Amino acid sequence: MPKEFTISDLRKMVSGMVSDAVIETLSQTPGASGHKNIMPFRERGDPNIDKDLERNIKLYTDEVENFPGHFKTFGEFLREIAYNPGSGHLVRAEMEEGDPEQGGFLLPTVMGELLWIDTLGSSVIYDKVRRVPMTSATQKFPRVVDTDHSTNLFDGLEFRFIAEKAQKTSTKPKIKEIELKARTVYAMTHVTNSLLQDSRPSVETMLRKMYSSGSSWKMDEMIFRGTGVGQPLGILSSGALITQAKESGQPANTIVWPNVLKMWSQIIPALQSGAFWYIHPSCTEQIMTMNIPVGTGGSAIMVETGGGIRPIPRSLLGQPILWTEHASYLGALGDIILAVPAAYICGMRKKGLTIDVSTHLLFDKNETAFRGEMRVDGCAQIDETLKLRDGTHIVSPFVTLEARE
Fold first, then answer.
1. Is residue 45 part of a domain?
2. pTM given for the model
3. What are phi and psi of 13, to 5 degrees?
4. Could you give the angle at which helices 20-28 and 7-14 cross, rounded to 10 degrees?
5. Distance (Å, rounded) from C-alpha 402 to C-alpha 309?
6. Range of lowest pLDDT (63-72, 309-318, 347-356)
7. Which of 71, 94, 279, 301 is disulfide-compatible with 76, CB 3.0–4.6 A?
8. pLDDT band (50, 70, 90) for residue 87
9. What is the number of structural domains in the chain?
């Protein structure tokens, strides 16, 4: 007959095999106290011990699930001791220096939760541009050219009034093509299999999140700063970019209210509602302390008297402010950008970001390879500035401020 197995019995059974730290952990585990009859267990040497160990792998309570490290449960840890004491997953506790055989086995060290704070945040522009699927590695998209409203529309199309029975004259808009080539952007990482098995939360889950946010961060960078050589062509290199001149005598490393108003006036009127301010964090003081000059003094614009206790304003002239490291440092060209993301096109081959996992590439090193990859390209849909009907004022979907260094 099997006898009832208690904490006291367990202490006797594992004496000399498991360190006192394990026994102490067992006796202090929530839920263990008060469980007098935990599970039937046969004496050591009984030929049926294997069958009982398999049947009672949880050992004593449900609270010992999610055991740290290689072992999923405390039961697996004790079974390794019983069946495979030479296992590389077991660490002996030496009772005397230089004589490991006198000690038991150390309880596995808990691997703390894998620490990772998403310092990238969500996309500031990639998720707002026009994204279109590419059905081939190179694809052309027709676009209408519109550069001068003082003479006609769409560089050739005219709307005219005509007398009855008069002969009509044909006009037509100008069409150009945008050519996008699927360019590969990727990241590849090798992770040891032991880290994959032992970490919580899953390293694989963390890497997938890293690849997702990382690829969006990279695309944000390219949409602003891409050179067009082997990568997308960014806004700051676009032929449509307007660089608003600084004020006469404006000090270095400053942003003043007239800069903001003049930048706003350069956005295509029909697109103003879709514009965003992209500003580098180093410009915060300049933005928050802007004022309207009144005589020898001034009136605060962004933060009124006593307004420091309120949340920081999130808009400027009614349009959202997005603070981003992809803008330039204060004083440099591009530290403050006013842009309409919908005027930028991003072509995407296949289904966007794909994440692949291989256990074979580094099989001999006991590592697993992760690869995140996508094939994309992008450029401004509007690549020229637009002269309005007056024939003088120039506007665009993209405006920045002249350097003030």
1. yes
2. 0.70
3. -65, -40
4. 170
5. 33
6. 63-72
7. 71
8. confident
9. 2
